[in-house]
Write a structure and sequence with these properties.
The structure holds two protein chains of two kinds. Chain A is of the alpha+beta class. Helices cover 35% and strands 17% of the residues of chain A. In chain A, β6 and β7 form a beta hairpin. Chain B has no helices and twelve strands. Chain B is mainly β. Classes of the chains: A alpha+beta, B mainly beta.
């Protein structure tokens, strides 16, 4: 948002120009010093103090330390300090050549006196020259008493000074390290000495340390002429505004390249209880750790190392501490306290002498998923966008991110809500120099911020990404970038800028818009909001209807006059001649939710009446979210009534979407649908067992591809294609429904790939879409368009609006139902083939809603809608509300996040979050019926709702009756069986259809020889007592014995190249190899005269169940057929067919051993395919039978089926379920449950992969077990009881 | 909610391996082992309990290891040809403390020990070396016969002792490399696995970075 409004661009200039750089590691200010400043600081160390001036040096290139020491000796220096110990260069220095050392050249020893300033300055300049801009001053006053140091030192002093005076030219030096690496420096200190001075000098050094300034390391003071940290010595470059831009390579964080996020495990999955401590259950899998637990000891040691109290709640830790815990402590070894191994000590506790490194959760999870497939699979649902590890979401390089203006970094300011940011800028105190630099910048920033706050987006932050903003927010923010330009004479066109705006903030937006107008600009708004329309200077009302019925200006007047225009629908609503009524028969609700008793001030008359009604509260079920804490939610408990229409309201940013979309929807989707989502932070949700489906109709697009459209998304296009495939012409040509798809080859235009338009790339200009010249925008080839339903081709259907299509398909219930739903949600004007990317967010949401409404309702579905009224006129809103109320009348629950007061006033229950946005929100301000909310003084929504309720007309709502609806639908139009009365050519004259100009199943003429077909039929007919040949099928000719007998021969004629002959004979009568040899049909590759090729055998023989054998021949013409051989073969086949018929008739069960063996057959596991691995034992089947009988002792089993044992309860019409035994993986148990009697959470512990699927007239519960322990007996008994209870109710109901 | 990953995988562990001037006598009785030589018991971090005691110690001649398993009800199953299918003790050593290397180097070795299954009557203990899978470089062949192993099987379990001479440990150089990679896993056909750091699911058998660090510092734990 910062970049869109350009505020960030001004801020980065501000930070680079007046910001104070800080060392990112040491968190201390950094800056450059001139040599004069250094001299002044050294003089300030204390009058009379003795100081050694040192210059850090390093070997150059491949130079050895010995060589460097010799070189410096030759340059006239006498001493060096190596790792804090001073050595004489006259003697060999014994150091490890393979390691790096901290080497400083002793340049001079001075006594600090103001009178000697000139000499001191001289020495300091020399030290800085040798040290390449860096020098160290070591106070040695007390250490000098140490004879070891003092004696040689005094002599050295003279030599150094002597040398100094002797040299006039440039001073020789070994290249001092500008980058005195902080790590090296600190490592040396830590590992070798623990301080920068030798241990023997430490005592004295401490005694003389003048202050605790960060520059001091014991008695060492580091001075640098570079832009570097005085504490760690790290150098930094001068920062320019580019270095503060996360969109530039110069400024972005190298790890995330300015995105601020990376893929990683969700922190909420790791820290499951942020209000607890790490030893008290905050961390997933750690639980509550007792003091005796080893993990407690380790966690405590870790906490000590990081620097926090292990009993402190997670929320109380600083960001740095949390980061160390989540991201690890690097290579630090941490010792567990009190477990050090003593001499010959026991290790019975198992932790003696153990040290550990803490990897941290994020790196460890990352490592586990990289190295193990199991964990990759298991944890993939936890992977989400998390703040970048390197920049912690700040997006900037570390040095730029550490720059502070008035103690705030750029990222910190960007994270604040805009209201707070504005206050901060208003109160910013700057020096006169800074004010001079920042003057214009601050003016720009503040004016934009003020506008944003004025238009009601003060809850947003500059860090918020533009893609997550709603349409209204986005427009209001774009306006903010315009306000600063101060342009006049501009025409601003805005499309519903009030989207996502709470009614409280409407006036602020209107004021801001008027300010723009007053500057001399013109504003044209497309708007449905009553207040905005009222405040307009001039209104153009379009209509009178939608789509084809619209397109005219029905009124053009001021809002006041608009109310008087009869032709204006909007005017009628504004004048309340037409309105959305407040339902007088609101569903009954209790006076308070089970969550809490709220104290509200009732000052509405209607409330009394409402309370009287409420007193009749029935026993409704509640869905209760406990401890919701996602984003700004303050661990709140929220109770949502089921079977009611609930609105969640509150000012923008108060936590509505966090509660409903992040917590409620995701948690339910995970529990009910096993969705791979991570629910927002909460403790638990109770009452889920009363919900069996959750549907979230959000405002995300229904698709990104132009081939996706409302017709395809809702599934209505499938039904239309099915209809077109049933039309006579389609049947004659063999068109299946695939032919009418524009997404696959066959019937579509291949030039434009079914899009109707072609994209012309213009290289340096935007792509241009032009109508396809082949299909003229019709998407299909001419042959496909020939097929027409009531004079409309499939392309015409796609061009139709929903309302037109509704008329066209009124007699096709399957199509009409979905179209009606689209029309009901106010999308009657929408073109069926309109590509998905061109739909607005509100339209996309309503298409989703319609798609869900078109599916069978279970009566226990929870619908979640996020501002479904976006882009809806009052009249369409009325329609939508009717649909939502209809859903609730059917027993479903509807939860709406909404700002629209017309919707809120019709709800059964309202939950108002707030009181303000961001950190000041996240609690429930009021809950109850709309009247109760209107009476709440704390509720912002209530204040806005009160006048609307008072002005609204009360009207009884027509309660939806599904049976009445069915009757109405029946009366509406009789369903038509398309093509039923048409006699198809194969029904008229089958022989001619199959033999003269026959078409294959794609509509192309066949190439096999029709004479061969006639010859084969003639031969077969002459070989036995067959019934008359059945020619009356489009692609199949059948021969069979008279009566209800299995067929003997099928000749399939739908293939273009080969005739497909299928014969049934007794098992074992023919072998494939023998038959191939005898018939001598060549491979296709051996027939060069054919346009097709292949090496597969054209004779196939395979066994069939029930003692039959299946023979398949693929023939082209008489070249494949030796008539004599075939005659013999066909005769043998016909005889074998009749012989097998005799066998089957004599003993029908001969080929069905399961009929004879019963349960033994299932225990033998013979029905399992030989290639399947069998993972269950026969004893499991017996045990499962026993378990079912223990629940229902009079249960009867039938084992006559080949693949399953059926069980039934005496007196019930249908079998209660079955145990499927022919699958090796596990036993599959299916239970028949009356529709809606069970919800997913009531069967989730029955076994593996439990699911409830709707079946004809009931639900089917399926689960798998390969051991009895997988099945929760208690839950099975409960589920069984529910099924029986519902079955009894069902049987009691009249048919 | 269960742990997302094993808690032991969140840490790298380091412990001191006990120095013994005289190596324990290998007779299968475990009489010369003391509690001081017990290896860290870390299973509790993952909510598991150890079913066996495991000891280890070292001196300049090599590394010794021992275990005692009790409370068994069924007979042992040991097949030297498929040692991984039965009861066995396996240890992994890396003579260089490179705990960030994810594939075995030539200094990494895996040894296995079976309490029975060897000798004429299949009653004697077995010791062997198993190549580490997916190793970047295999360790050179070693004289396996030099590994000493002794066991004693009882009705309720068994005890096992083994000594791996320094010559069988590629790169055994205590002066230069006193920190080594170390891992053990005890597989029991009745009670599953007991291991030092991570189990099969995190590929201890291919990834030396999952092993712990053992410090072979004579000065820090003089006998």
């Amino acid at each position: 948002m910062g970049t869109v409004t350009e505020i960030y661009d001004y801020m980065r200039i501000l930070w680079s120009r007046i910001g104070q750089p800080y060392c990112p590691k040491c968190k201390v200010p950094i800056g450059t010093q001139s040599s004069d400043e250094i001299v002044e600081k050294v003089l300030g160390l204390g009058e009379g103090r003795k100081v050694i001036l040192l210059a850090p040096i390093e070997p150059t290139g491949q130079e050895s330390y010995d060589h460097m020491f010799k070189r410096e000796k030759a340059n006239g220096y006498a001493r060096v300090r190596v790792d804090g110990v001073i050595h004489s260069l006259d003697e060999p220095i014994n150091i490890d050549r393979r390691r790096r050392h901290q080497v400083e050249l002793v340049v001079d020893r001075i006594v600090i006196r103001r009178s000697q300033a000139s000499r001191i300055s001289d020495s300091i300049e020399q030290a800085l020259s040798v040290g390449d801009g860096v020098m160290i001053a070591q106070i040695i006053e007390k250490a000098a008493r140490d004879a070891n140091v003092d004696a040689p030192f005094r002599t050295a002093t003279v030599r150094e000074r002597t040398y100094s005076r002797r040299t006039d030219g440039p001073l020789p030096h070994g290249r001092g390290s500008e980058k005195t690496g902080p790590d090296e420096h600190q490592d040396v200190e830590k590992s070798k000495r623990g301080s920068a001075i030798p241990s023997r000098d430490r005592k004295g050094a401490e005694a003389f340390a003048p202050d605790d300034s960060p520059a001091a390391r014991g008695n060492n003071y580091r001075f640098s002429q570079h832009h570097s940290c005085d504490t760690c010595g790290q150098s930094y470059e001068e920062l320019s505004p580019h270095n503060f831009s996360f969109n530039s390579r110069l400024g972005w964080c190298d790890a995330c390249e300015g995105l601020g996020i990376q893929q990683g495990a969700s922190p909420t999955a790791i820290v499951i209880h942020p209000t607890r401590s790490i030893t008290d259950g905050a961390i997933a899998g750690w639980g509550e750790l007792g003091p005796g637990a080893k993990l407690f000891a380790i966690a405590s040691a870790l906490a000590d190392h990081i620097g926090f109290d292990p009993s402190m709640p997670w929320n109380g830790l600083t960001e740095t501490q949390q980061l160390a815990f989540l991201h690890g402590c690097g290579d630090d070894w941490i010792e567990v306290k009190g477990t050090a191994r003593k001499k010959s000590g026991t290790n019975r506790n198992g932790l003696a002498g153990v040290r550990f490194k803490w990897h941290g959760f994020f790196p460890a999870i990352n490592r586990a998923t990289r190295s193990s497939w199991q964990y990759r699979k298991r944890l993939e649902e936890l992977v989400t966008d998390v703040p970048c590890e390197a920049c912690t979401g700040g997006r900037l390089r570390i040095d730029a991110a550490a720059v502070r203006v008035s103690d705030a970094t750029l990222h910190e300011v960007c994270l604040w809500p805009l209201g707070k940011t504005l206050k901060w800028f208003d109160n910013l105190t700057l020096s006169s120099r800074q004010r001079k630099i920042a003057g214009e910048l601050l003016k720009e920033v503040v004016s934009r911020l003020r506008f944003l706050v004025d238009v009601g987006v003060d809850y947003l932050s500059l860090h918020r990404t533009a893609s997550t903003l709603s349409g209204g927010e986005s427009q209001r923010i774009q306006l903010a970038s315009q306000i600063g330009t101060g342009l006049t004479g501009v025409l601003y066109v805005l499309d519903e800028p009030t989207i996502g705006l709470h009614p409280r903030d409407n006036n602020r937006l209107i004021r801001a818009l008027k300010r723009l107008r007053d500057l001399g600009n013109t504003l044209m708004l497309v708007e449905h909001d009553r207040e905005v329309i009222d405040s307009a200077d001039h209104v153009l009302d379009f209509g009178p209807g939608a789509g084809a019925f619209g397109g005219e200006i029905t009124a053009a007047a001021s809002p006041k006059r608009l109310r008087t225009r009869r032709a204006s629908l909007t005017g009628r609503y504004l004048s309340n001649k037409q309105s959305i009524p407040v339902p007088s028969n609101r569903r009954t609700m209790p006076s308070a939710s089970p969550r809490t008793d709220l104290q509200v001030d009732d000052d509405l008359d209607g409330v009394v009446e409402g309370r009287q009604r409420e007193s009749q509260s029935n026993d409704i079920n509640w869905l209760i979210i406990h401890g919701a804490r996602e984003n700004n939610l303050k661990e709140i408990d929220v109770a949502l009534p089921l079977g009611r229409f609930t609105c969640v309201t509150g000012v923008s940013g108060s936590g509505k979407s966090s509660l409903v979309s992040e917590v409620l929807y995701k948690a339910l989707a995970v529990r009910i649908h096993r969705a791979r989502l991570v629910a927002g932070g909460h403790q638990r949700i109770t009452g889920i067992e009363h919900v069996d489906k959750v549907i979230n109709a959000d405002q995300s697009p229904i698709g990104n591809s132009p081939t996706s459209n409302p017709a395809t998304y809702t599934g209505v296009f499938d039904a239309v294609r099915e209809l077109f495939a049933k039309l006579p012409l389609s049947k004659i040509r063999g068109y299946s429904m695939n032919r009418f798809s524009f997404n696959r080859p066959g019937g579509r235009c291949e030039a434009c790939l079914g899009m109707g338009q072609r994209c012309i790339e213009m290289h340096f200009l935007p792509d241009v879409w032009i109508e396809c010249e082949n299909c003229k925008g019709q998407r299909y080839v001419e042959e496909t368009l020939d097929v027409q339903y009531r004079d409309k081709s499939i392309a015409d259907v796609l061009d139709m609006r929903v309302s037109e299509a509704l008329e066209l398909f009124e007699s096709i219930p399957k199509v009409r139902r979905m179209l009606q739903t689209l029309d009901d949600v106010g999308l009657g004007y929408l073109q069926l083939g309109q590509s998905a990317p061109t739909l607005s967010a509100g339209e996309a949401q309503r298409v989703k809603l319609a798609a869900e409404l078109g599916r069978p309702s279970t009566g226990k579905t929870l619908y979640i809608l996020d501002e479904p009224t976006t882009g809806l006129h009052f009249d369409d809103l009325k329609k939508l509300l009717a649909v939502l109320q209809r859903l609730v009348d059917l027993g479903n629950t509807c939860i709406c996040i909404e700002h629209n007061l017309d919707v809120i006033k019709t709800a059964d229950w309202v939950i108002d979050l707030g009181p303000q946005a961001g950190d000041e929100g996240g609690i429930i301000v009021a809950e109850g019926t709309p009247e109760r909310i209107a009476g709440s003084r704390q509720s912002q929504t209530g204040k806005a709702l009160k006048p609307v309720l008072k002005a609204g007309t009360m009207e009884e709502r027509l309660v939806h009756d599904p049976r009445r609806q069915q009757r109405l639908e029946k009366d509406l139009a009789k369903p038509v069986d398309v093509g039923a009365g048409v006699e198809m050519p194969w029904e008229r004259n089958g022989r001619a259809w199959h033999t003269v100009n026959h078409l294959d199943h794609k509509g192309a003429p066949v190439e096999w020889d029709p004479e061969l077909l006639l010859w084969l039929i003639k031969m077969m007919e002459s070989l036995g007592q067959f019934a008359p040949t059945d020619w009356n099928h489009a692609s199949r000719i059948e021969l069979k014995a008279p009566g209800n007998k299995p067929w003997c021969c099928h000749i399939l004629t739908g293939n273009k190249d080969l005739l497909h002959v299928a014969l049934r004979v007794g098992l074992g009568k023919f072998t494939a190899s023998d038959l191939r040899r005898k018939l001598g049909i060549k491979d296709l590759d051996d027939r060069p005269d054919l346009p097709i090729y292949g090496q597969w055998s054209r004779v196939r023989v395979r066994p069939m169940p029930n003692g039959w054998q299946d023979i398949r021949l693929f023939l082209r013409d008489f070249k494949d057929v030796n008539k004599t051989t075939y005659r013999t073969f066909l005769k043998a086949a016909a005889n074998a067919y009749f012989d097998q018929l005799d066998v089957v008739e004599a003993d029908p069960d001969s080929s069905r051993p399961w009929k004879k063996l019963g349960q033994q057959w299932h225990l033998s596991q013979k029905s399992i395919h030989p290639r399947h691995v069998v993972r269950w034992r026969p004893a499991l089947l017996m045990a499962m039978v026993g378990r079912l009988k223990s629940i229902q002792p009079d249960l009867s089993f039938s084992w006559n089926s080949k693949t399953a044992g059926l069980f039934a309860v005496p007196g019930e019409k249908h079998a209660a379920g079955k145990i499927v035994t022919n699958i090796g993986r596990a036993l599959r148990i299916e239970l028949r449950a009356p529709s809606g009697s069970l919800t997913p959470t009531q069967v989730d512990r029955l076994g593996e992969d439990c699911e409830i699927k709707p079946a004809t007239g009931c639900d089917r519960v399926t689960f798998w077990i390969h051991s009895l322990g997988q099945c929760d007996t208690k839950q099975l008994a409960d589920a069984w009881r529910r099924c029986r209870e519902s079955s009894t109710e069902e049987s009691l109901q009249p048919a | 909610m269960n742990a997302l990953i094993p808690n032991r995988f969140l840490f790298s562990f380091e412990f001191q391996l006990r120095y013994r001037r005289d190596m324990p006598k290998l007779d299968g009785k475990l009489t010369s082992w003391t509690d001081a030589e017990l290896l860290p018991r870390l299973s509790e971090l993952d909510g598991k309990s150890d079913f066996a005691d495991v000891w280890a110690c070292w001196n300049e001649t090599g590394i010794a290891i021992a275990c005692r398993v009790t409370g068994r009800h069924k007979p042992l199953r040991c097949d030297p040809k498929k040692f991984w299918t039965g009861d066995n003790l396996r240890i992994c050593t890396d003579m260089r403390d490179a705990r960030t290397v994810k594939r075995a180097t030539r200094f990494c070795q895996q040894f296995y020990f079976l309490p029975t299954g060897g000798g004429p009557g299949r009653k004697r203990p077995v010791a062997g070396v198993n190549p580490i899978k997916r190793a970047r470089e295999d360790a050179p062949p070693i004289p396996v016969e030099r590994i000493e192993v002794a066991s004693r099987v009882t009705k309720s379990g068994y005890s096992l002792e083994a000594f791996i001479p320094g010559k069988c440990l590629n790169g055994f150089d205590l002066l230069e490399h006193s920190r080594i990679g170390f891992y053990y896993i005890l597989e029991d056909t009745e009670r599953g696995q007991q291991y030092l750091t991570v189990g099969d699911d995190l590929y201890w058998y291919v990834d030396p970075s999952t092993w712990a660090t053992a410090v072979l510092d004579r000065m820090s734990n003089p006998e």
